[in-house]
Amino acid sequence: xxxxxxxxxxxxLTVLLYVGFVALIGLWGSKISGYKQxxxxxxLEFSPRSFNEFLQGWGLGCVTLLLxxxxxxxxxxxxxxxxxxxxxxxxxxxxxxxxxxxxxxDWQGAIAPGLLTSFGVGLAEEILFRGWLLSELxxxxxxxxxxxxxxxxxxxxxxxxPLAVILATWSQFAGLVTMAIVLVLARRRCGNRLGMAIGLHxxxxxxxxxxxxxxxxxxxxxxxxxxxxxxxxxxxxxVGIAFLWAIAYALKKLPQKLL
Length: 259
Fold this sequence. Notes:
single chain; 2 domains; globular; metallopeptidase activity
């Protein structure tokens, strides 16, 4: 299909591959590993408890990005740009939100597509990396070894790029490893259910998708790009990685009722 139709079917092929993968891990879990409920063993649980954990994770991801950008705006490391906000068939008066530099055209190309993309990516990657892969590693290794191994695999597979790009975005690797550690902790905190990990992953992607698509913020040049995030990527900067470690600490140390 790719040879015949080119890049136009790239997304469709990715979706089909993940659907095939999800089907195969069910067979793997039942026939090879001997699980009676393989998908539940890999963390997929459709229950009110898991849904609540998903919402908590999504909210945590969105709030984290709000704090991330708000801190840098207050320090003068970022500046806000003109963005668009819809209201029915028209737009909001410009005088309503002057403080954040909103100029209001149309956000339809950011919010809804970003929501679908972030949920899809969060669900697919969590099933793969924190679901099947982590569960398989947990069978043969100590929890810390499994966590480190799964996190490194996640980062490496996201960092298969030309050497020039790798050198230019070196800090992103550390961010990917840290993000993977956070998502492993999110699953383990919830009794190995994936709800919170899917929500947290999706919430972070959704917030970044909106900001990146609308070009809402840009660095002021006050501090180096590796501080705010190389190429605008939050997890490719020191501040973003610090926020991720703060989430990791909260997942590890705070009582369940406080998170």
